[in-house]
Design a protein that fits this description.
The protein has nine helices and eight strands. It is α/β, with parallel strands linked by helices and about 250 residues long. The chain has an eight-stranded parallel beta barrel with strand order 1-2-3-4-5-6-7-8, surrounded by seven helices. It starts with a helix and ends in an 8-residue tail after the last helix. The structure holds SN-glycerol-1-phosphate.
Length: about 250
């Protein structure tokens, strides 16, 4: 089954989907299988693998390890054209629509398109918006773009609607990995109320409470990464997954 169909089915049956971001640079090889076991048991719906700045990590090796130890689909979250590999199931084909840098809006996509076709990866076209979250994030710096101001949800909503009208399948509200503050709930709500494509929310999410608020605001996919790099937090994966799949119901 196509990954887009799988995600749509998950949203239809569980209310929302939970993605865990894995940065190949941050993996402890000895403990990785244990981490994957926590994710499988919790019902994580997909892994995002990649990063804005891959220094030493081996993307292909990481995906092979995931495939060896779990059945969870793997979606590349590319920080560069080099991060296109047939080992994965799909790829977030992200256009940085909050910025005006032509390379990140369309340029890299032209370079990547023939590679994606050759690998047979399923491209998931995604309008990617970086949202101001406190300190400057790697995503902001690496893309050389200004984030959408936190107190301007109407800019995010208009941008998301434009992405939908352009035919994109998802919009991603990104606070940046390890952000001080996650994307404001008011912004998630206005974007979700304005457009009809699924809203992905990630960056700086560290609690089930925050996840429930995002789900209640209309988020359809939640991404957490940084917080789960510490093994002490792995026991929370289950709680996070339940919060994503709770349909915002605090009693669940
Ligand atoms: C970053 O949205 C993802 O691209 C996840 O962010 O690492 O802060 O959870 P965190």
């Amino acid at each position: 089954m196509k990954i887009h169909t799988k995600i749509s089915d998950t949203i239809a049956t569980k209310g929302a989907a939970y993605f865990v971001l894995i940065d190949p640079d941050k993996i402890d090889n000895d403990k990785f299988p244990e981490f994957l076991a926590f994710c499988s048991k919790a019902g994580v719906d997909a892994f995002l693998v990649g990063g804005s700045l891959l220094v030493a990590g081996d993307l292909e090796k990481t995906i092979r390890q995931i495939k060896e130890h779990s059945q969870i689909p793997v979606i590349i979250f590319p920080g560069a054209v080099e991060q296109v590999t047939a080992e994965a199931d799909a790829l977030l084909y992200i256009s940085l629509i909050s910025g005006r840098n032509p390379e990140h809006l369309f340029g890299k996509h032209v370079l990547a398109a023939p590679l994606i076709k050759r690998t047979g990866l399923e491209p998931l076209s995604t309008g990617y918006m970086i949202v101001e979250s406190g300190r400057r994030t790697t995503a902001e710096y690496m893309s050389g773009s200004n984030p959408i101001p936190r107190h301007k949800p109407e800019i995010a909503a208009a941008t998301a609607l434009a992405a939908e009208y352009m035919g994109m399948k998802y919009v991603y509200l990104e606070g940046g990995s390890g952000a001080d503050n996650s994307v404001p709930d008011e912004m998630v709500k206005l974007v979700a109320d304005t457009c009809s494509i699924p809203v992905i929310v990630g960056g700086g999410i560290r609690s089930a409470h925050d996840i429930r608020n995002k789900i209640k605001s209309g988020a359809k996919i939640i991404v957490t990464g940084n917080y789960l790099e510490n093994p002490n937090n792995w026991s929370l994966i289950q709680e996070f997954a339940e919060a994503v799949h709770s349909r915002g119901n605090i009693d669940l």
